[in-house]
Amino acid sequence: MDETLLTNSYLPLALKPGVAALRAAQFAASRAASRLLEGGIELAKNDVLPPRRKNTDLRIVGNVGIIDVKGVLDKDLSWFSWFMGDSTYESIQDQLREALVRDEVTKVLLLCDTPGGNVNGIDETRQLIKAVNKKKPVFAHASGLVCSAGYALASAARKISITEMTEAGSIGVVLTHIDQSAYDKERGIKVTEITAGEFKRMGSAHKPLDKAAMEYLQALVDKHMSVFKAWVQEARGFTEDQLNAVANGALFIGSDALDLGLVDRIATYDDVLSSMLDKEDNNINLSQGVIFMEPNKNEVTLAWINENCPQLAEELRKEGETRVNMNTTVEQAVKAERERIKEVLELAPTGLEATAQDLAFTSPVSAAQAAVTFLKAAKEKGTQLLNDHRKDAPPALNTVSTDTDPQADEDKAILAATAAFNAKRGIKNPWDPTN
Question: Deepest of 150, 211, 252, 284, by most Cβ within 10 A of its Cβ?
Answer without folding.
Answer: 150
